[in-house]
Amino acid sequence: MAYLIPKPGRTPMEQAYVPAVVEGLGITLRKFFRNAFGRRKDVVTIEYVGPEGPKPAYPERYRGLHRLTQREDGSPRCVACLCCSTACPAQCIHIEPGEYPEGDARFGFERYPVQFVIDELRCVFCGYCVEACPCDAIRMDTGVHAPPEHERPIFIYDKARLLATPGRKGDHASENPRQDPPAPDESYER
Q: Number of folded domains in the chain?
């Protein structure tokens, strides 16, 4: 037996969404005339005064461009787990993992990025890569807007450029400490 769901009682005007369209146009016209002839405090557009003029202040929570954080010895904190490239909806991160050589303290249980590339033109700046990184190796805390350029290769950031980019405070370290791997004769304390 089929169950019938009763249709809601709507007039032809409601069915054509005429009241909703009129209400939306009313809001648009009210905002237009208020901004054009009334109070100017509702306008949030920042006037561009040229390259020599004052730079607009970015909000404290503005992310900015990507950077890779470093350990004390200057090596990247990235362990090439590929979590950031997997979480990226734009697929703009490319990582080639490599193994540490024998004799290194990290040999056997940690990898490093041989190649780490971010295409900033494909990036949607969602921050998923930062959230997915278990090592706090990738950050978006530079507070810097992408510079205007005319050539695409300038916006493809490689590992050297990402490591050289400082954070908002001017350092290359991470704010979240992480226990680095022990020397070959030591073990982790639990």
A: 1
For residues 127 and 116, the answer to whether their CB atoms sit within 8 Å is no
Question: Residue written as tokens 């890569």?
Answer: 129
Cβ 78 vs Cβ 137: under 8 Å: yes
**Predicted structure pTM score:** 0.66
**Cα dihedral: 72, 73, 79, 84 (round 10):** 60
Contact 142, 69 (CB under 8 A): no
Domain ranges, residue 147? 67-164
Model confidence over 11-58: pLDDT tens digits?
Answer: 888 788 888 999 999 999 988 888 777 666 656 677 777 778 777 777
In a domain, 188, yes or no: no
CATH number at residue 95: 3.30.70.3270
What tokens appear for 2 in the block?
Answer: 């089929």
Rounded percentage of the chain residues whose pLDDT exceeds 90: 40
